[in-house]
Here is the input.
Amino acid sequence: MIIDCHGHYTTEPKDLHRFRKEQVAAIKENKALPTKASLKISDDEIRESLEAAQLKFQRERGTDLTIFSPRASGMGHHVGNESVSMEWSQICNDLIHRVVKLYPENFVGVCQLPQSPGVPPKNSARELERCVNELGFIGCNLNPDPSGGSFNSPPLSDKWWYPFYEKMVELDVPAMIHVSGSCNPAQHTTGTYYINADTMAFMQLMMSDLFKDFPTLKLIIPHGGGAVPFHWGRYRGLALNNNRPPLDELMKNNIYFDTCVYHLPGIELLTKVVPIDNILFASEMVGAVKGLDPQTGQYFDDTKRYVDQVAWLSAEDKRKIFEGNTRKAFNRLKIKAPAKV
Amino acid sequence: MIIDCHGHYTTEPKDLHRFRKEQVAAIKENKALPTKASLKISDDEIRESLEAAQLKFQRERGTDLTIFSPRASGMGHHVGNESVSMEWSQICNDLIHRVVKLYPENFVGVCQLPQSPGVPPKNSARELERCVNELGFIGCNLNPDPSGGSFNSPPLSDKWWYPFYEKMVELDVPAMIHVSGSCNPAQHTTGTYYINADTMAFMQLMMSDLFKDFPTLKLIIPHGGGAVPFHWGRYRGLALNNNRPPLDELMKNNIYFDTCVYHLPGIELLTKVVPIDNILFASEMVGAVKGLDPQTGQYFDDTKRYVDQVAWLSAEDKRKIFEGNTRKAFNRLKIKAPAKV
Here is the structure.
């Protein structure tokens, strides 16, 4: 079984965009917000939006199941206030729930959180609980920088985040650490901001004893762990210089990187330096980088092809990357999509 | 000849630290600033500070010349105001000048700039001019984020920076894009902030026509180009998606990455994907990561060893990385250290 742990609903029906546009405009102009009831999205529209995109790619690339969440750049936690963020998150999460109900074999849900700048993360616990207990979701996307590009939140190791981690541990779900769209002109959303947030997250975790306090907490750093594998020697050295444990020990049962790295040499480096047990297959499709790579004639984000090509990965290594490790990180997968024996 | 294009004076005599400590404290407490005249650093102290460190490593590793600048994390552009930054920069640059005078065969100078948050970069042109024309320096370190961790400056492609680029072009010197110490607890200086600034710089340049306006402007992105080589496919794809030229064309005579990547697999990836003509040898010694790598028994920052080990690099490739490309980027090297025939 091949599980893609990082897919976003980036082909949403157009009425969702209409709603969000009106919501954002209403905030700017201090007018009445559009109502949730105004949203008109039919099951057929949802089917159409997926059949020609995510489902087509699943079939073509031979992947079975996508762990699916709302568009990351669309979370927009910096827009409006906490109640706006809550309404928008619930709408987006409910839409993911509809996707999963329509295609239970192809998708399993992960939620967006109603974060807002300066608002304690614990306020997101209720929506996480709703998504896990009522909608059957198996994880969440946690934004380490709800400001949209200033990196002015406390480090992920700060007690600020602890009440939310407590809820995650209680519900037995992991978080993917994922920022949203950048409102900072210095940081391009998919080219800079995403990658910088990943690198930042790793360093914050590396310098802390967070996992002593939460031994079963699981965090996924997407986009191959940002810059970390390329600078693996720097991080190994910094760990030593700061009396931190070796990186493989530090990551062991708590930190995972995904394979959203869009060329073979990158995936080769990732699988060469990062412990195989900490790598989760993912493509982020249909996501950050669209289209065909003229060098290969294949889609940039067809990351399965790269993993397949790595010469030194054994069949067992690949089984771990494609399925086994993801089952460890997302423990609730066993309910939604039991392993085939 | 082997030229290390990225070395900082990180072993400064202790009176420099005394001065800076007093300067920072005086700003905080709104007291009288220490005077420049109070600084007492003898030539012997300078010699001692280098003999057991940079010079020892040059000899041991077989490198000839280091392009040398003040400690990057010490620039502290966010501390105090423009006049504090000016005095501190001049002191640091004058000290580099003394180093170069004592060891003209081993070091050539690059300056720190008197940047300050919100202050137009053009105000740094005068100090650049002084360092180049009076002290014989061959380049500068340009901080893309004088705030110390908020990334709130305009992108490097913004007209905000143009008057400073005009001076660089006039003087025929390149800039290394290098932030200073982070005052943002979310961004660790050497583990996050440096690397994030590199990645940010590349994306800003990639999305702009800066080099159409300044065809001879040369910018060096240190630390191997941040996350860029690891995500080379992502950047190639984003360039295509945004109708930008291919990356090798975009970098051609304007953007260089250095080899401050502290493990062999990273250097292998760098030299596999980035055009050889755009890679400059550098070690950042004695810098970000100290000590021996237990996996190799060698210093993490002995990057020459990694370059030497890359199987597919020809003698000509290595000559370019170790000397030729650096001479192209730092055109004034030909005055300070003419190529040996």
